[in-house]
Design goal:
- This protein has 470 residues and is mainly alpha-helical.
- The protein has one domain.
- Helix content is 83%, strand content 0%.
- The chain has 18 helices and no strands.
- Helix 9 packs parallel to helix 15.
- It starts with 9 loop residues before the first helix and ends with a helix.
Length: 470
């Protein structure tokens, strides 16, 4: 259902928009966590380590894709907020064209340079072959994930966060089912896990595309809008490239940390892989609020409603701060039990130290959750600024995150061993969070001085809500 986020109470709209995003993200994490659990229990700890150690490579490419498509659909949301239907249709065509080209390029790079990338990651010899097999198969799903996220981005740009949820649930359940069948029944090992992801993404993309054509007439391509215009494409790429760079910088920093982690062996890799999956599950509420702010700020920016953006941002930051406190308390109490979900603690035949894995994973979760307030600030303020079409500060905050996370991981690991890796992300969150908060307030101060544009927008909103005054 199309939803105009420029009218109504900001807090209510943000929560309503974020809830389906949260459920969708949780289901997406559910199938990833289920995949890790299935691999850890039905194959081996080494197989779990192989997937955990190689996933950051794939994440670099996925984050490029997510950032790129997210930047493209900011324009779509702004045109919708401005009630420019022709602009929405022009945006859809140029977004599709750019995304198709990107998907071809990224898939080719992954397939050609897979072996050098695994070697660059210091992949241990005992898990190298499994990591290669997993990544080779998963690379073929890149284009489908890019296009699916673009279609979901179109739908969210129109204020509908529920429809993408349904497809994520559908895809997640299929993925879990296929992973289990391929691994347990067909004994395909890590390749079975990758095939489950490949087939579930293909099905989700096909169903989403058919549904979008039927239910969202505004997103259907028409001949009069299917022609390339360089000015329109430049406007999209002006946002897409910085956001792609920003997301890739973040994933590169994670890959550097993983490379340092890989030098400590399979047990340490497995512990961090399990803890990272749990962390990704816990931060989803904050991520959902941030994603909601991207669309909320984009639509209201297109409608020239700065005061609504400011109110929405305040509400969003209060919510993420509350979530961070709850997350810390939960991880402190139940973190080690959650790590145990991923490994067979009764199987000592592989030579892995399960007690060490459990303890390291718990330590990681407790340390990281202490800094979740900064992570919530990153999600809220970075997405808000991006929705306003201002990618510079988010890009600089990502560079800050890259430098601080990489330096901390490498330097601290030399001093205190693998425990140094636990502090890398928290330190980077603090640095980037402070920067993006300062940047957001600088933008707001700058735009408040341009009062005429925002006053006109607020008058138009008042007329839409209350009608003309007699």
């Amino acid at each position: 259902m199309i939803n105009d986020l420029t009218v109504g109470h900001p807090l209510k709209l943000i929560i309503q928009f974020a809830l389906p995003l949260l459920l969708g993200n949780l289901f997406m994490q559910l199938y990833q966590v289920s995949d890790m659990m299935i691999v850890g229990h039905l194959i081996s700890v080494n197989a779990l380590a192989a997937i955990g150690a190689s996933t950051p490579i794939y994440m670099v490419f996925l984050m490029i894709a997510f950032g790129f498509t997210g930047g493209l659909t900011v324009i779509t949301a702004q045109r919708f907020g401005a009630h420019d239907e022709d602009g929405v249709r022009q945006s859809v065509f140029h977004c599709l064209l750019a995304a198709i080209i990107l998907s071809i390029i990224l898939t080719a790079i992954m397939l050609v340079f897979l072996t050098p990338m695994l070697k660059l990651m210091n992949m241990p010899a005992e898990i190298f072959d499994q990591a290669y097999d997993f990544m080779y198969v998963i690379a073929w799903s890149t284009s489908m994930i890019i296009l699916y996220n673009l279609l979901a981005g179109f739908i969210r740009a129109l204020g509908d966060s529920k429809t993408p949820l349904y497809f994520l649930i559908f895809s997640s359940l299929i993925n879990i089912f296929l992973n289990f069948i391929f691994i347990n029944n067909f004994h395909l090992g890590v390749i079975g896990s990758a095939l489950g992801t490949l087939f579930s993404n293909a099905i989700a993309l096909t169903v989403c595309f058919i549904y979008m054509l039927k239910k969202f007439p505004l997103l259907r391509l028409k001949k009069e809008f299917m022609h390339y215009e360089s000015d329109i494409m430049k406007a999209h790429l002006k946002l897409a490239f910085p956001m792609a760079l920003q997301f890739s910088i973040l994933s590169v920093s994670i890959m550097i940390v993983q490379s340092v982690c890989n030098s400590f062996g399979a047990d340490i890799i497995a512990a961090f892989a399990a803890a990272f999956r749990i962390e990704q599950f816990v931060i989803q509420p904050m991520l959902a609020i941030g994603m909601a702010m991207a669309t909320f700020s984009a639509q209201n920016w297109g409608a020239n409603l700065l005061s609504r953006i400011r109110r929405g941002t305040r509400y969003a930051f209060i919510i993420t701060t509350s979530i961070s406190i709850v997350g810390f308390l939960v991880m402190r109490q139940f973190g080690q039990n959650m790590i145990a979900w991923f490994i067979d603690t009764g199987d000592n035949s592989t030579g892995n130290n399960t007690a060490l894995i459990l303890e390291i994973g718990k330590q990681y979760l407790i340390i990281s959750t202490m800094f979740y307030t900064f992570l919530g600030a990153i999600f809220v303020f970075r997405n808000t600024i991006q929705g306003m079409g201002k990618p510079v500060i988010p890009l600089f905050s990502s560079i800050t995150e890259l430098l601080t996370r990489s330096y901390a991981a490498i330097y601290l690991a030399k001093i205190i061993g693998y425990k140094g890796i636990m502090y890398a992300s928290p330190i980077s969150w603090a640095a980037a969070g402070i920067l993006v908060i300062i940047g957001y307030n600088c933008y707001i101060y700058k735009f408040k001085s341009q009062t005429l544009r925002w006053k006109i927008g607020e008058i138009k909103q008042s007329l839409r809500e209350n009608g003309p005054i007699d």
